[in-house]
From TrEMBL:
The keyword rRNA processing does not apply. Keywords: Methyltransferase, Transferase. GO terms for biological process: methylation. InterPro entries: SAM-dependent_MTases_sf. It comes from Tessaracoccus lacteus. Its EC number is 2.1.1.-. It comes from the Bacteria. One of its GO terms (molecular function) is methyltransferase activity. The keyword Transferase applies. It is an enzyme of class 2 (transferase). Transmembrane segments: none annotated. This is Class I SAM-dependent methyltransferase.
Amino acid sequence: MMHDLRARFDHGADHYDLLVSLNPGYHRHLRSAAAELASRLHDVDAPRVLDLACGSGASTRALVDALPAGATVHGIDLSRGMLAQAARHTWPPGVSFEQGRVGNLDTARLGEGSWDAVFASYLFRNIPEAGRDGALAEVARLLKPGGHLITQEYSVAGSPGADRRWTLVSWSIIIPLGSVVDRDPDLYRYLWRSARRFDSPAAFMDRIADAGFRDVRTRTVSGWQRGILHTFAAVRP
């Protein structure tokens, strides 16, 4: 499954930024989550942040804009195509990228217990259910004691209204746009399915807590994505 998913993102990388730019809330929601992370690190000089599933760099840009000068942001993504898009942008010192699969990272090389925060936008939904607990445990190992996890994710399980809204928007807007711009709707059909199959917000919060995190919280966004897009926050004890 992960090989197929990587191939989908590699194929769609050239047009991905254009397609997400057509979602008026996409970058705003990333900036909101990045600002929440920055507020939690307000007393940390030169914070070190891992940006997991960094994709083409939109989340990285949101972090760079929110964090103080001198911060380290290291992006990791499964897709070489997405990383190639990220490399096209100009980045300040302290920003770097590498290919990797969350759940199978070289945590010793990355530095266990050395990161102030992990930011993960649209990551855990793309990890098979059997691997999500291990991936969260991996994140916990990378964080310093007292380090923060902020992750943003689509989830409609347990909310029939949100599920109907997500299906309507997916099939009337997202998938047709993917077909026109990318000439291959498979990635966007996958997006629709994966959000419907992902943990409910309550179940994912339980999963985060079971991985050893405390103070697990969630909030949703306004507008049509209310009850669909969620930001989760937690702390490593």
